[in-house]
Every structure is written in structure tokens, then in C-alpha cells.
Design brief:
The protein is α+β, with helices and mostly antiparallel strands and 886 residues long. It is globular, with a radius of gyration of 29 Å. Bound molecules: beta-D-glucopyranose.
Length: 886
């Protein structure tokens, strides 16, 4: 490095110190602190976004309780250190909005870095200092920004080029059909694996953008790309590298007929079957300049995919974790079986040395036979086998690139010598969503349940929410997607992910408004089963409720309306009678047409609520009227006054109408009574629901003051229950309540029964929001302190900031610690049990003496006793309450 470069680094370091010190200084003072956690389109400093008016969100902090934002100012500039805007200055905007504020400056340019900062004014009009600068890099907005061609079709591609000068900025945009690994001058660019994310390729193909400034060099350079098939039938690539030199000169390198290709060491690759890698076919140095490529062929061109190129605006799939095997056994001569101790998605990294040509096979499975051998029967046709052929040059390390497996056990054969625990490591691979929720409590079984929910969910996020991750399926089944969504949003930062998936759904919608069971559409039907298609309105609605994403509601409104109008054409007397799956995998079957009609009603209800939220007054009336008719039709058609229950009286048949208040008030008590009896007596405290009923069961029980019964189901250990899965060694959720291991549909990692995860937060931790609240503005803290539950602690990092709640109870007292973010408020509901009266303190100060609310403590707005509850109303801040019973 020359002196100039050193000086530059020193300057940047000094500036960094100066600015970070400055922010620190302001953080120590009282009042509004600079906004934090700046997000652009849900992402942290994204590289490559192609939204013309990106939206910004931030979180607020304040030294005082009960605070909110009354105004903000947001600036966008081309220099991270600028204090004034050269791109856009919102000026001071009187608004409490801190989520999804849209850029309104002049059009952004393609492939450019932008920086933004924000400050806010609090309740008393005190301004905070500006936040630290966050950045976003634009991708390629226009088709003509892509100068290259689509090239392929072999596995390995390369191109050399030279740069005459020091590189100031290098951005590469890579779009591929199949999966790719991008290498520059001998190094892998970025951490993405199995990239790009899956979409309906005929409609849309995603490209990823990388900051490659540090990988480029003055002089000769080489680009190398390996391509696998992924979900595509062809291997194709288009790529655009834009370079800016220190002197201001610009140059670009792109995919064209000057690129060379060869077959490379990946002899076979298939998502389901695995990868065959022959290390003898490696071509050392191929991704560095100066390689002799005379034996390589010219790439082919001419195939141009139809899909629109869109920026991949979700966290990429990455290697997220490493698992050390728990155990190695040797059930048969030369067969070794590793137990990873956890079912997950990904692969194994192998370390091996041995003679050239030795062939090591790794087969993956979720299950073992009693003999200790792996059982792959439930993978159906997926072979899940990686093969590595040694080159015979010392220690060789191999991990597959273009496949992944869902497994707990790995069988190793053909290994030269005797393997040991160091031979392999498990690599956990999934979309890199951040975990933002945590839950733990005094009941170990529920902590274990949370564990299996989290692992099932995250290892089934592979750029789409998959049904399972092991057998020959792994598809975006829409039913599974909406049933797990609330739970996912409470545990993980899902905003960008679902924004992408909702667009994927939209991409499959046809002119008639119909949707498909799977997205992208591979299996299942068009039109989708109504209980599956409902993912479109429901996911949009959850995005609005959880992230306050009103712009998304607006953008999807017409599509959802088209879908509802399609359903209307299929309805007869306001009921839908087509259904393929009904209450899927239930113990007791419920008529599918009831399930479909329930979702028809739900969809219309959501459309009405959307119209309300967006102020589409004329449509509110239309759809409210339609909703009313469907509701009455369901009741009229399915309610049996003799049995006082719906349809065939299964748990699901009764709880669906209860969930959406389809049951007229006079009959609610008896229908609920029937449901309760069915659970308690007919089924000896067991559920009989499939995936649909299970999603709403716990909430219905809680709504009807039967949280203790919900808790009994959640902690049940005999069949059918979650506890039964756990008792049988589940480390992820099963597809079926039954314990099956045979050759059919019985995956052992299927997130759909994990819908109970949202109940753990809403009812046991007690973090929920009021019905009219969006983005956790009006928080409801209402923990259910039932049975032997002694303490629960949990938090959700909501888009407004952390909401934390921890409670403990003893015979005559409750302690409750709560944190509410700035710009939100909360109502706390606590039980009084059988106590005759209560007193209440906060941080040792009495705020309720059993008769009246004692004002004076900041942030606490009201305390009152209503029937069997004590209600506390608070603003933002941290609180420590203590309730004493008499
Ligand atoms: C999938 C399910 C899906 C179902 C629809 C199965 O093959 O694995 O999770 O919802 O089909 O019937």
C-alpha cells in the first residue's frame, strides 16, 4: 500500500472516531436520543435496491418515559458526512410517523450510493441530534443498464480484464438462472449461497448486487462463476460490473461472448438428490488472472429468459451456524453414522485425506432404523446424497454448493481410513433473517416447544417459506405460509422476506384473479384451495398489523380485490364449496366447504378492513355488505340447533365460526361449551385439529377465558400433541400428529403446526396489540398466569423498538417488568386471582392504594380495577410493577 492510501485510511479512522464520539456525547445527555436501527425497505444498509421511492424506518429512544415523536427531518445525501442534503431534505415534517416514510426527492440514479440520516422532535418539541448515517445503494433501474448478454450453459465460466488505475468503487450485479457462486481474483464475493432466491422465473428473476471494491485490483483481474441448476432447467448468467476509478474514469465488464466456459468439478447437482463433485476435475487458478484458458470453450448465447430482472431485496441465504456432531456410530462395516443432534437444513463440510479417486458418499436422513442405519424412506424420491471424489493432495475440504438437505443424521461411506468427530461439521443454511423474539418460562416443555418452532421455521426459510426441507417437495405451499406467518413475525425480522413473497404470490395471479396452491407454482392446483389462497390477503394484512406497512396494503389492494371477486364468482348462496385439503392432516375431519367458506368470509373481512385503512369509503360498504351475507350464510347452513354446534361438530368446525364471531351472540356460550367438552371429555384434553383449526384453537380458548385449557393442550405429552412429538425426540415439528417413519408423507421438519408460537407470545408472555393498532402502536400486555406457570419472560424487537415483558408470580404477588418503545403506549391487564383487594407499586413507589390511582410517576397514566382485573395504562419507557394481593 502506498503512503497516500495509508493517509486516507488514517483520515477516515480519525473522522470515524470524531463522529462516533460526538454521537456518544449526545447519547449521554437527557432528552431525545438520535434515532437508531435505520432501515431502508426493511433492510440495513442494503446494496442493490430497485424501488424508485424507497421507504425509510427508524427507532426512537428517549431519556424520559411517555415520549413520542411529533416531527422528523430526514435527509438523503451522496456524502455520508454531510450535514445538509444534496439529494433530498424532507424539512421538518410534523408527524409521528417513523415507519415507511417514502423518499420524495428527484429520481434516484442507477448504481449509486446514497446516505441518509434522520432526527426527530419529541413531545415538547425538543429535537434529537441526527442519527448516524445509514446507506443504500441502488441497483439497476432500467433494462438498458444491463449491457451484457445471457451466457451459459456449462458449470464454470471465466473472464479476464484489466483495470488501469486505483479502484474507487466497484459494484457487481449478478443475475442467474439456477444458482451461482461468484469469484473475483481467487476469492468468493459476498456470503450468499444458493443465490438468487427462488421466483416464478418466467415472470421475474432476481439479481444480487455486491460491493466488490476491495476485491478488484489495479492491473489484471479475473471473474469466475460456477453455476448450478437450482430450481431452473438451464444454467444461464448475466452480469454487470461497474467500476469507478480514483480519477473519476468509469468502466464496465459484462457477460458476453468473450467469456469462456468448461464443465468443471461439479459433475451433477440437484436440490433434491445432492451434488457429485470430482476434485480431480478442478482447474486451479481458474478464478485468478493469468490462467491458461486455451482448453476452455466459448460460452453460448441466444437464450434470453422472459422474466423481469428485479433486485433481490431480502437477506440472502447464508451459512448461519456450524454444528458439531453429537455422536458417531459404526452400525455396519465401513458405514459410519453421525448424529448432529438437531434436524436442520444445509449440508456437511467434510475433511478428508486419501488416495486420488477415492469416492466418499454422504447420505442424509431425518431418521434412523433400530439397527442404527439411516432411514431415508420419508424423503420419497429425494436421494439427498453428496459424493466427493478425492484429488489425493493432502487434506481436502469439501462442502456442496448447489444443493441442500434437511437432516439430522448423515451416513458416511467410502471414507479412506476411519473417520472421527472432527471429520465433519454441520452447516446450517437458510435465509439470513434476524431472530428478533425470545421466549422462556418456568415450564421446560414450553421452552423446548419454542426451540422446535424456531428451528422448523428458520430452516424452512429458503427465499420462500417452504413446507419442508428434506423430501422431494420444499415448496411455497400457501396454506403453510399464512399459518406460520404471525409466529414468524414475532420470532424473526420478516418484513423484507414477506414483501418478496407477497410479490411472488402476485406474480402467479392470473387475469381472472386466481392464485395457485404453491408459489412458485409447481404442485397443487389453480385456483388455489381457498384455505391456501387466503395467504395473499392474510400476509398483506399481517404486514400491516405487525409492520405498519400501509403502502404495501395500497399496492396490493386491487390484486386482493380481484382474488375476492374471483371467489365471489365461485360462491353459491354466499358459500364456497370447493376445497382440496380442508383442515389438512386433522385427526377428525371437518367438511372442506366449511373451511373454504370461513376463509371466503375472512378474505372479504380483510378486504373491508383494508378499504377502511386506506379510506376507500365506497368499497367499505360493498364488502361489508358481502361479508355480512357470507357470515349469515355460514351460520344458516352449518349451525345445527339440536346439537348446538356447527357441521359435524368437530373442534375445527366449532372454533372457526367462534374465531371470527360468525356465531350469533346468543349461541356463543353453547357452541364454546361444545368445543370445550369435546376437548376435555370426548378427547381427554387433546386436540383433534389439523393445521387450520390448530392455528385458531389456542386463541379461541384464550378469548373465551379458557387459557388454562389452552395451556393444558400446549403442555400435553400424549398423542396427539406437541409434547408427544417432543417426547419422541423431535427437534423440529412434524408434519403429522402421528409418529410415522415410513415411505410416505411424514416429514419431521414441517413448520405448519408451529402456529402456536404466536400464542406463546400473545398469551403467555402477554405481548399483543389492540385490535385497531398497527405496528405495535397500542400495545396490550395481558399475560395469562395459569396453572403451574410461575414466570415468563420474552421480548419482541418490534419495528418501533423492543417490547419486553417479564412476569413472576407467587401466592400473593405479581412482579412485572415491561419496556415499551417511544412512539407507542400500552395497556396492561393483570389478573387479581381470588384476592380481596390489591395494592400496586412501581419501582417501590405506591401508585394504587386499593382505592385510587396515585398520580405523579411519569409515564403512568391510569390504574383501575375492573372486575377481576387490574388495568394499568402507560406510555413508553421501562417499568417495574409489583402487585400485592390481600
Ligand atoms: C405439503 C403441505 C401442504 C399440503 C397441501 C403437502 O404435500 O407438504 O404442507 O400444505 O401438501 O395439501
Amino acid at each position: 500500500m502506498d503512503v497516500q492510501s495509508w493517509l486516507k485510511i488514517l483520515m477516515v479512522a480519525l473522522l470515524f472516531f470524531f463522529f462516533s464520539h460526538q454521537t456518544h456525547a449526545s447519547e449521554e445527555t437527557a432528552g431525545p436520543f438520535p434515532p437508531e436501527n435505520l432501515r431502508c425497505e426493511y433492510l440495513e444498509n442494503p446494496t442493490g435496491i430497485d424501488v424508485e421511492k424507497p421507504r425509510f424506518s427508524w427507532m426512537l429512544k428517549h431519556s424520559e418515559r411517555g415520549q413520542k415523536q411529533t416531527a422528523y427531518q430526514l435527509i438523503v445525501c451522496t456524502d455520508p458526512l454531510a450535514e445538509s442534503a444534496d439529494v433530498w431534505d424532507s424539512k421538518k415534517v410534523a408527524s409521528d410517523r417513523s415507519l415507511h416514510v417514502a423518499f420524495e426527492g428527484n429520481p434516484l440514479e442507477s448504481d449509486r450510493a446514497y446516505y441518509w440520516k434522520v432526527r426527530y422532535w419529541d413531545d415538547q418539541d425538543n429535537p434529537s441530534s441526527y442519527s448516524q448515517a445509514a446507506s443504500f445503494d441502488t441497483g439497476l433501474f432500467h433494462p438498458e443498464d444491463w449491457e451484457g448478454e445471457w451466457i451459459g450453459v456449462k458449470n464454470q465460466l471465466r473472464k479476464e480484464f484489466s483495470i488501469d488505475g486505483d479502484v474507487k468503487r466497484g459494484r457487481i450485479h449478478v443475475c442467474c438462472l439456477g444458482y451461482y457462486e461468484l469469484r473475483i481474483n481467487g476469492q468468493k464475493a459476498g456470503n450468499n449461497v444458493l443465490d438468487p432466491g427462488y421466483t416464478t422465473y418466467e415472470k421475474r428473476i432476481l439479481y444480487s448486487s455486491y460491493n466488490v471494491t476491495q476485491l478488484l485490483q489495479n492491473g489484471d483481474n479475473a471473474l469466475g462463476v460456477m453455476i448450478g441448476k437450482g430450481w431452473s432447467s438451464v444454467r444461464l448468467l448475466t452480469l454487470q460490473l461497474n467500476i469507478e476509478l480514483e480519477g473519476g474514469e468509469k468502466l464496465s465488464v459484462f457477460s458476453d461472448t468473450t467469456w469462456k466456459q468448461t464443465d468443471g468439478p461439479i459433475v451433477q447437482d440437484s436440490i433434491y438428490n445432492g451434488e457429485v463433485y470430482d476434485a480431480r476435475l478442478e482447474t486451479p487458478g481458474w478464478d485468478n488472472p493469468g490462467f491458461d484458458e486455451s482448453a476452455w470453450e466459448t460460452v453460448e448465447t441466444g437464450i434470453v429468459p422472459k422474466g423481469t430482472l428485479s433486485a433481490q431485496m431480502i437477506p440472502p441465504i447464508q451459512v448461519m451456524d456450524t454444528i458439531v456432531p453429537m455422536k458417531m456410530t459404526n452400525p455396519k462395516k465401513d458405514v459410519y453414522v453421525f448424529d448432529m443432534g438437531q434436524n436442520f437444513s444445509g449440508w456437511v463440510e467434510l475433511r478428508v485425506s486419501g488416495p486420488r479417486g477415492s469416492k466418499v458418499c454422504m447420505r442424509h436422513a431425518e431418521l434412523l432404523y433400530e439397527t442404527g442405519m439411516i432411514n431415508q424412506e420419508n424423503l420419497r424420491s429425494a436421494r439427498a446424497e453428496d459424493v466427493y471424489i478425492l484429488k489425493g493432495e493432502g487434506e481436502e475440504i469439501y462442502a456442496p454448493r448447489f444443493t441442500y438437505h434437511g437432516f439430522r443424521y448423515m451416513e458416511l461411506t467410502g471414507f479412506p481410513g476411519v473417520p472421527n468427530m472432527e471429520t465433519i461439521r454441520g452447516k446450517v443454511v437458510h435465509t439470513a433473517v434476524k431472530q428478533i423474539g425470545n421466549f422462556s418460562c418456568s415450564k421446560p416443555l414450553l421452552n423446548r416447544l419454542q426451540h422446535i418452532i424456531i428451528w422448523s421455521l428458520k430452516t424452512n426459510l429458503h427465499s420462500i417459506p417452504t413446507d419442508c426441507n428434506q423430501r422431494d417437495e420444499r415448496m411455497g405451499w400457501l396454506g403453510d405460509a399464512h399459518l406460520t406467518a404471525e409466529q414468524a413475525m414475532m420470532n424473526f425480522d420478516m418484513g423484507a422476506f414477506y414483501t418478496k413473497f407477497i410479490r411472488d404470490i402476485q406474480d402467479t395471479q392470473d387475469k381472472e384473479g386466481t392464485l395457485t396452491d404453491t408459489v412458485p407454482h409447481i404442485w397443487g392446483q389453480r385456483p388455489a384451495d381457498p384455505a391456501w389462497g387466503t395467504a395473499y390477503p392474510l400476509l398483506c394484512w399481517y404486514m400491516y398489523r405487525y409492520y405498519g406497512d400501509e403502502p404495501l396494503l395500497k399496492a396490493q389492494y386491487e390484486g386482493i380485490k380481484d382474488y375476492v371477486e374471483f371467489l365471489r364468482t365461485k360462491a353459491e348462496d354466499n358459500l364456497l364449496d370447493f376445497s382440496y385439503y380442508g383442515d389438512w392432516v386433522a385427526i377428525e375431519k371437518t367438511p372442506g366447504d366449511l373451511v373454504s367458506s370461513f376463509y371466503y368470509y375472512y378474505d372479504v373481512l380483510i378486504l373491508t378492513k383494508m378499504a377502511e385503512a386506506l379510506g376507500y369509503d365506497a368499497e367499505i360498504k360493498t364488502y361489508l355488505g358481502l361479508a355480512e351475507k357470507i357470515k349469515m350464510a355460514i351460520h344458516k347452513n352449518y349451525y345445527d340447533s339440536e346439537t348446538q354446534s356447527y357441521a359435524n361438530g368437530t373442534q375445527t368446525a366449532n372454533l372457526l365460526p367462534l374465531y371470527l364471531d360468525i356465531v350469533p351472540e346468543e349461541q356463543r356460550g353453547s357452541v364454546f361449551g361444545d368445543l370445550r367438552e369435546d376437548i376435555l371429555y370426548k378427547n381427554n384434553t387433546h386436540l383433534t385439529t389439523g393445521i387450520i383449526g390448530t392455528k385458531y384453537l389456542m386463541e379461541v380458548l384464550t378469548k373465551f377465558n379458557a387459557s388454562a385449557l389452552a395451556y393444558d393442550l400446549a403442555t400435553q405429552t400424549s398423542y396427539p400433541s406437541w409434547g408427544y412429538m417432543i417426547a419422541n425426540g423431535a427437534t423440529t415439528l412434524w408434519e403429522l400428529w402421528q409418529h410415522k417413519t415410513g415411505p410416505s408423507m411424514n416429514s419431521h421438519n414441517h413448520p405448519m403446526f408451529g402456529s402456536i408460537g404466536s400464542w406463546l407470545y400473545k398469551s403467555l408472555v402477554g405481548i399483543d396489540q389492540k385490535e385497531e393498532s398497527v405496528g405495535f402502536r397500542d400495545i396490550l400486555i395481558q399475560p395469562q398466569m395459569v396453572r403451574d406457570l410461575r414466570y415468563v419472560t420474552g421480548a419482541i424487537h418490534s419495528p418501533r423498538g423492543t417490547i419486553h415483558c417479564a412476569w413472576t408470580r407467587s401466592a400473593r404477588s405479581i412482579s412485572l417488568d415491561v419496556t415499551i418503545p417511544v412512539n407507542a403506549q400500552a395497556e396492561i391487564h393483570l389478573p387479581k386471582f381470588d384476592w380481596e383487594g390489591i395494592t400496586l407499586t412501581e419501582n417501590g413507589n405506591q401508585i394504587y392504594d386499593g382505592q385510587k390511582f396515585l398520580t405523579g410517576l411519569s409515564g403512568i397514566r391510569m390504574v383501575e380495577e375492573i372486575r377481576n382485573k387490574v388495568i394499568i395504562k402507560i406510555g413508553s419507557g421501562q417499568y417495574s410493577f409489583q402487585v400485592f394481593g390481600k
